[in-house]
Amino acid sequence: MLSDHDPLTAGFSWTRDSAFQLSDQFGGPHGDYSNDVDSVPAAARAPPAALRPP
Q1: DSSP E strand stretches across the chain
Q2: How confident is the model at residue 25 (pLDDT cuts 50, 70, 90)?
Q3: pTM exceeds 0.70
């Protein structure tokens, strides 16, 4: 596509909060299945993210 507008560029970086973790789906002394992913509704959405300049 041809345009008479100057091209735009954006830098993007992110880091994961160390408090956010997904552990193994098994554990305990007998390898029992244990994860809360089954309790999350199928229509669940992540909360909005805010972008701010560095």
Answers
A1: 26-27, 32-33
A2: low
A3: no
